[in-house]
Amino acid sequence: MNAIELLGQLVDGRRVRGVLFVDENTGRLTFKADRQSKTRHKDVLMKKLPWGWLKASLKCYKHYSSVPNDLTIGEQLAIIDQENELVKQALIENYILESD
């Protein structure tokens, strides 16, 4: 926050949270505003999968899967295909429930 914004808020009668101090390097009076934390919406777990999860955020769906390296490539691909089918089914179920 720069000085003009700070003075504008003070003139308007608003409260401004922060620290007012004398800077050791410049010797000038300095105001450091506190950062206002924005509330973040948590992702909603839609379905727990055998090898991961499917979550819904405000903007998109998130699909995560983790497959062990000790499996053969064929087994890994089969697991990934199964996970994708489960995700598709969960999205269809969610769409049907929301449309009712």
Verbal overview:
This protein is α+β, with helices and mostly antiparallel strands and 100 residues long. It has 2 helices and 5 strands, in the order αβββββα. The protein has a 3-stranded antiparallel sheet with strand order 3-4-5, covered by helices on one side. The chain is elongated. The model has no long low-confidence stretch (mean pLDDT 89).
Short description:
By secondary structure, the protein is α+β, with helices and mostly antiparallel strands. 36% of the residues lie in helices and 26% in strands.
Task: Give the helices and strands, then pairings.
Elements: H1 3-11, E1 18-22, E2 29-33, E3 44-49, E4 52-56, E5 61-65, H2 73-99
Antiparallel strand pairs: 1-2, 3-4, 4-5
User: What's the multimeric state?
Assistant: single chain
Low-pLDDT stretches are none
Radius of gyration: 26 Å
Number of strands: 5
Number of helices: 2
Give the averaged pLDDT, no decimals.
89
Instruction: Spell the H/E element sequence.
Output: HEEEEEH
In percent, how helical is the residue content? Answer: 25-40%
Q: Main beta sheet: strand number and arrangement?
A: 3 strands, antiparallel
Cross-sheet strand order for the largest sheet: 3-4-5
Q: Given the helix and strand composition, which structural class is it?
A: alpha+beta
Instruction: Give the distance, in angstroms, between the N- and C-terminal Cα atoms.
Output: 48 Å
* Content of β-strand: 25-35%
**Looking at the structure, what is the overall shape?**
elongated
Keywords:
100 residues, 5 strands, three-stranded antiparallel beta sheet, alpha+beta, two-stranded antiparallel ribbon
